[in-house]
Amino acid sequence: MTDKVLGVILGGGQGSRLSPLTQTRSKPAVPIAGKYRLVDIPISNCLNSGIHRMFVLTQFNSASLNKHIKNTYHFSHFSTAFVDILAAEQTVQNAGWFQGTADAVRQCMHHIVSHEFDYILILSGDQLYQMDFKDMIEKHIEAKAEITIATIPVTAKDATDFGILKADEENMITSFTEKPKVGLDAWVSDTGAEMQAEGRNFLASMGIYVFNREYLINILNENEDEKDFGKEILPRAINESRVLSYQYEGYWTDIGNISSFFEANLGLTDEIPKFNMFDSNHTIFTRARMLPPSKISGTTLEKAIIAEGCIVQASRIEHAVLGIRARIGKDTVVTNAYVMGSDRYQTLEEIQSETEKGNALIGIGDRCYINNAIIDKNCRIGNDVKINGGPHLEDGDHELYAVKDGIVVVKKGAVLPSGSVI
């Protein structure tokens, strides 16, 4: 796989549906599960599948992502492995931004084709799943396909949010429709007895593609007005080429908005989570920080994930994820929440000085109540602060926080004075 396949991870656009988490960072750089970044998921899937050469394509707020990749993915000097950033750039041929997924790959093609490969694996940078790409590529080769699209069976309720496909007996895709709202019955597929028993009768595109090298080069050169794979290139290719459906039945979720991001993170606290971080065959790689173990005093923990370097004195942490260096004060209750932590510790001198001035420290203070919330990095939440998210709150974007689907998102670096109520 190392010699045959090159991975390309699409960083996505502005990520407005994940705002305010994407106000200062690109979507792939958003922290997930307390210690990882979203981009670590596709990169780790590639590394676990024997694919060691990857490009990450970005154009919005890419500084944080660049820093993470530079500090994380180091390989031997004697290896051909790499994870490189390709940011949108002005050239003589093209002076504009990426206009879509296909346009992003097209604009970066002169960098990509300088490497030897037979197949190119195109991935999204904002999905949570564990997948062995070796099997997908082997099926692609066996079927003599020119394109393979990873598909996942979904219910009728979910089908309206995805591109839906139909395939023949040989799993060759025969037709495609984007987010169908009517006439769903015509798109029912034979997804297998197990999937059908769950009501998952529709094949949805996962936004994961394998292309033959020369085929991709030709299709991008011949159709320069087509900017997007899902909406333009693939529907036409289905009528003209051999396009294989590779059905995947494991856990997969698209981190498209705040609600799905919140559910994916809190789902990790389940007794048997659908996304298994403890599978040694699917290691999730990330930056190796030299942090101390977490210290917990007088806290009742229930369904909690706590990353390294936390200092917790809360009375209760339930159904919550605490990110690196999270600090939680005494008599505080945190439920149904993702606290992302912070980038640094305050020194004892800083803590004393800030306390004397009556200023909030980095972290969450004493006697707070945090429920249905995401606390972004480096926030300073004073004492006696109450944040109670839920359907009773109207969606809105405020100076220090936003509310989306009842979830309160405290913005990165925000300061909530003691006694604040949301």
TrEMBL record:
GO terms for molecular function: ATP binding; glucose-1-phosphate adenylyltransferase activity. Its EC number is 2.7.7.27. Pfam families: LbH_GLGC, NTP_transferase. Signal peptide: none annotated. One of its GO terms (biological process) is glycogen biosynthetic process. Gene3D superfamilies: Hexapeptide repeat proteins, Spore Coat Polysaccharide Biosynthesis Protein SpsA, Chain A. Residues 7-270 form the Nucleotidyl transferase domain. InterPro entries: ADP-Glc_PPase (IPR011831), ADP_Glu_pyroP_CS (IPR005836), NTP_transferase_dom (IPR005835), Nucleotide-diphossugar_trans (IPR029044), Trimer_LpxA-like_sf (IPR011004). Keywords: ATP-binding, Carbohydrate metabolism, Glycogen metabolism, Nucleotide-binding, Nucleotidyltransferase, Transferase. It is an enzyme of class 2 (transferase). PANTHER family: GLUCOSE-1-PHOSPHATE ADENYLYLTRANSFERASE LARGE SUBUNIT 1, CHLOROPLASTIC-RELATED, GLUCOSE-1-PHOSPHATE ADENYLYLTRANSFERASE-RELATED. Belongs to the bacterial/plant glucose-1-phosphate adenylyltransferase family. This is Glucose-1-phosphate adenylyltransferase. It comes from Pedobacter petrophilus. The lineage of its organism: Bacteria, Pseudomonadati, Bacteroidota, Sphingobacteriia, Sphingobacteriales.
